[in-house]
Amino acid sequence: MAICSFAVQFAPGTAGDDARFTLGSDPRVTLGPVAGDRLALVMEVPDDEGEAAGEWLLTLPGVLRATLASAYYTDLPITACPTR
Amino acid sequence: MIQLERRDFLKMSAMAAAAAMIAPGTAAAAEGAAPAGGDGLTWSKAPCRFCGTGCGVLLGAKDGKVVAMQADKEADVNKGLCCMKGYHVGLILYGQDRLTRPLKRVAEGKYEAISWDEALTIIAERIKAKPGKFALYGSGQHTIVEGYIANKFVKAGLGHNHIDPNARLCMASAATGYNATYGVDEPTGCYDDLDHCTVLISWGNNPAEQHPVLFSRVMDRRLKGDKIHFIDLATRRTRSSEQADEVHFFAPNSDLAVANGIAHLLVKKGFIDKEWVQKHFNFRKRVAEYAKDPAKPVDFDPEAIKPQNLTGAPMTAAEYAKAIEEYTPEHVEKISGVPADAIRRMADLFADPSQKVLSWWCMGPNQHTRGTAMNSLLHSIHHLAGQWGKPGCGSLSLTGQPSACGTAREVGTFCHLLPGHLPVINPKYRELAEEYWSLPKGRISDKIGFHTVKMWEEFCKPDGAVDTIWVQVTNPGQTLPNQKKLFLKKKECPDKFLIVSDVYPTATTALADLILPSAMYVEKNGMYGNAERKTQQWFKMVPPPGEARDDAWQTLAVSRRLFDMGVETMKDKDGEWIFAKTLKNPDGSVPEAWKWESYYSINVDERCFEEFRRFTRLKHKDLAPYQVYVKAHGLRWPVVQQPDGSWKETLWRFVEGKDPYVKPGAGWQFYHSNSKDDRAFIWFHQYEQPPEMPDAAYPFWLCTGRVIEHWHSGTMTMRVPPLRRSMPHAYVEVHPDDAAALGVKSGDQVVVESRRGELKLPVWINGRGKPPKGTVFVPFFDERLQINLVTLDAHDPFSKQPDFKKCAVRLRRA
Ligand code: SF4
Q1: CATH: 3.40.50.740, 3.40.50.1370, 3.10.150.10, 3.10.180.10. Which one for B103-170+407-636?
Q2: Over the stretch B139-187, which tens digit does the pLDDT of each residue have?
Q3: What is the DSSP code string of B64-127?
Q4: How far is A84 from chain B (nearest CA, A)?
Q5: Minimal Cα–Cα distance from A79 to chain B, Å?
Q6: Which fold has domain B700-791?
Q7: Which tens digits make up the pLDDT trace of B32-77?
């Protein structure tokens, strides 16, 4: 499992509220402090879904931006696939 | 239980990092926020290993491995942001197939492990036998000190100038553009302009994928409510286009006509008579006459161009106005396809003093057979309009590599430069370098060495003038254009010898005679210089695997081996080894840094950097002492010491009050002016057709470039599983109408063929990018699908930079 954190910015109005609700009810997500329309959150994702986390956040209709803040590889198996 | 606590702790650290990004000060307030360093990891700063943006990152190491990464909130380049490549930067060290032993080729495709001692002897003997036929091919990924040592090794230690960096392929035209305009290289502004501009024009650039953090910096302002009019001048629709207020496609090469169209309208609006134009600029044109018919450009031998010609010939304001007269918006529309009204709108924005217009670009105007001209024109329209010299206004060339500026340009690893970006043809600078390096008079050659294309041409000819090349930190077997001619021909030249220092097997090591395993990124000390003149330093954090060693050490060790063999040119004027004085201890003893076990007994980077920075003052590119960079999170040169002893960076050059070298009362002062009168240039350059255009036999334009997931030839990013999964292979983007005419759909295989080579690729219709009808696009990151078998090696006559952005191809179903 990888641990990554994001700064997320929401759209004003109900779309943003809905996105907040969706995130709050996702077991992979821990919500953090809020500043205006922005929210800090942490996601725990399996290795092979790690790259999709940010993209997934952006697919939520009320999310305007999702910016990666940190990534912990500690529990990722550090083996990369050779090109050749 | 311990595992659970540790994960919770990591989560708290992660939350603190995100909290700090949403609002300064929130991190401390975040419940349970973990202080940096309290998580059992050793955190250290470094610039990101990949692109020229130069984002600051913090890497967390444990038990000799990098295990965590955070964007550096104290780095003002990225202010806590990173792109998906940066996020994975720690993983690039851990591909399963790292090179860990020196390898000697014993038969086709067969290698045997040898000792470092044997490897050094092989190289030294090869060089000693024919020093004049040896060349070093370096990189914009060389750290500053690696580049400095390689440069001194060749120019001082071999007495010739056959060293050139891969940066020749990516930003040589930007350098000649700046030099032609200001008499000195590198941007006059900086990334802070992105925080102030009201109009942003992208010229043949896709920053959403290639410089995503900088693009976010602008888009973030929009989300906060700032009005920024973003114009995307492009040859295909990209992710950047999706954010643009206006997208205009121009025919390849016709960007010159578009710039001329804007200049034409500015002249019509009377800008030629503006006070700033009269006071601060001279007009210039190319020395060679232009052809009457742009379809038949004047055919001049690029190798015969003299460096002096870069500064052009004077013209009066009236002559300039006459020359630009023909570029009416309608005429430009005919050449470029950009609507006349759009040209008018852009000219109006340039002419509006309430707007702050910023142009930015990267490989589009650089990888261009008229690259120097196009770069010069971009600066020129900003000068003419007065959209220069104020925060938010100007012309900013971005770079693709992390130290194209810091190493290739500032250290001067080009075949025509000395450290400090000093031209080698100037006897004054050669004498000075001989003095700084304690060399006998006349040691440094006055002849410009082989530039990249020429170097590989000579290497790939049986009787060519280069018989040994040492490649460091780059992958020419994938990135040179016209691969069959410039690289694969080596197979037919059994006497040629290719030495490759690298971290992984690549398309280049595949033809190597000797492979040297290198330490990578934070496995060594380093410094990089990014695209806004910012120098950043880092310390070695983890050991390299096996017998991998620093590139800087490799060059020092070969140099020392040659000295020990009695090679005269490896001695300075006192008979000492050329690096002895560089590395000397305060007590006068010379540390044995050429022996690996002693290499880290001193800080080689610090000692070499202190010698290098003497050179930087001559062109007012002053660098601070090494220890200042240890503490700072990057500083933009010139970095000048203040009365209180502190060191201050410079954000905007040539502007009074911002640049310490501008005289009080001067306003703007171009103190390296080519015309020696403190004025910069406004250039006229005629549009000409490119050397190869689609025709009946090859009816499509081919454009090549990058994707967000992969960096350059993919040597690093293709080994990071998440990045590889996100973009697993190359493809060809085809317009739906062209695909229908060929009878292919997405996923079908087609052959892309030029006069030089062909490649089979899967089709992608309406995919990541959307080319206009008649154009196809192929990324170059995939070693298995090398588009440079197809590209053209024609290059700009001044910068010698090849054009990877346009050539003629045909398509057929595979
Ligand atoms: S790849 Fe470039 S934009 Fe991305 S984090 Fe690294 S330096 Fe920044």
Answers
A1: 3.40.50.740
A2: 999 999 999 999 999 999 999 999 999 999 999 999 999 999 999 999 9
A3: TEEEEEEE-TT-TTTTT---HHHHTGGGGGGBTT---S-EEEEETTEEEE--HHHHHHHHHHHH
A4: 8
A5: 6
A6: Barwin-like endoglucanases (2.40.40)
A7: 333 345 667 899 999 999 999 999 999 999 899 998 888 888 999 9
